[in-house]
Write a structure and sequence with these properties.
- This protein is an alpha/beta fold.
- It is about 30% helix and about 20% strand.
- The protein folds into three domains: about 10-50; about 50-190, no CATH class; about 230-335.
- It contains eleven helices and 15 strands.
- The strands form three sheets. A ten-stranded parallel sheet has the order 1-2-3-5-7-8-10-12-14-15. The chain has a three-stranded parallel sheet with strand order 9-11-13. Strands 4-6 form a two-stranded parallel sheet.
- Helix 6 runs parallel beside helix 7 (about 125-140).
Amino acid sequence: MACSDGKHDRLSNLSDDLICHILSFLSTKECYRTCVLSTRWESICTKIPNLHFELPEISDPELSKEIKSVFQENIRKRSLEFDSEKYCQPNDVHMWVSKAFVNFALLRRTESIRKLTLHSDKGCQPHDVDMWVSKALDLKVQELVLDLFLHEKILLPLRLSTCESLVVLKLRGRIQPTLNSSFHVYLPSLKILHLRETVIYSIFDDHREYDLNNFLSGCPHLEELLLKETFRKPINTSFHLLKRLYLSIFLPISRSKICPIQINAPTLEVLSIIDYSLTPRKYEFTNLSNLDRATLSICKRPDFNSLYTLLKGLLNVKSLDLGSNTFNVSFINFFLF
C-alpha cells in the first residue's frame, strides 16, 4: 500500500467513511486491532455500523496462559486478600477480557449503530446484558440479535418494548422479553421478529407460560415472524403486512387441551409449520389469498375437522409441501377421490 516516495500510504488518503466501509467486512475484534495504528483509526472504529460479540472468546492455550499470568500479577500488586489461583481460572479470565472488550467498544460509543449481536454461553451476567442493550437503545440500534444461555434468566429493559428504531429483533435462549400483558408493547418499525426457546425458559423460571398475543399485537408492521417455541396458549392475531411465517413448535408432554393458532394474514407469501407436539393442535388461517408456498410437517395428526379447516385455509397456495408424518393415506385418498 505504500507509495513510491515512501512517506505516505494510500490507505491514509482514504476518507473515514470509506475506511469504515472496508472495516465493516471484518469482525469487530479485527476492526479494533487497527486501533494500534493511530488515534485516527481508534476514532474510525467507533463508527463501524455492526458490532458482533461472543462471550467468552476463547483464545489459543498459550495466549490464555499469558493473559492469566498478567491478570494474577495484577492481583498480587493490588494486594487483594484472596487466593488468585483459586479465583482466577482460565474461563474467568476469558470472561473478564471479553466483557472488558464489549465495554470498551460499546459503552464509550456515541455514534449510532445499525446492528448489535451478542452470543454467550455462560460468558456474562444478566446485568451486563441489560447494560449493553440499554446502551444500544440509546444509540438507536436497528437490528438486535441476542443468543444467550446464562446461569440466570435475562430481563430485557422495559423500554425495548417501545423502541422506535428497532427493525429486526432476534432472541434465543434464556431471555424474557416484555411478554406480560400488563406491559405496553409498541414497536412501530419492527419488520422481522424471531423468538427461539424463550417461552420454554419462562415456563422453567417462572412456572407459567406467557401470552404472546400482547407482544405480537404491538408489532403492526411485521413482515417476517419466526417462532421456534414450546407453548400451548392460543395465538389469535392479524398481520396485515406479514409476508413470511415460520412456526416450529414442540410440546414434549401430552396435554388434554392445546389452544388453537389463528392467523389472519392477507399478504402472506411463505408459510412453514413444523409441529412435533404430542397433542394435536388446531390451526385456523383466514384470508391467505396471496400465499405462494406452504410447508406442513405435523407429527401428531389432527382430527378430520381440524385437518379440513387447515387445508381450507390454504386453497390459494401455489406450492404445497407435505411432510411424511402429516397425513395418513386415508385422508389423502378422501381428498383425491
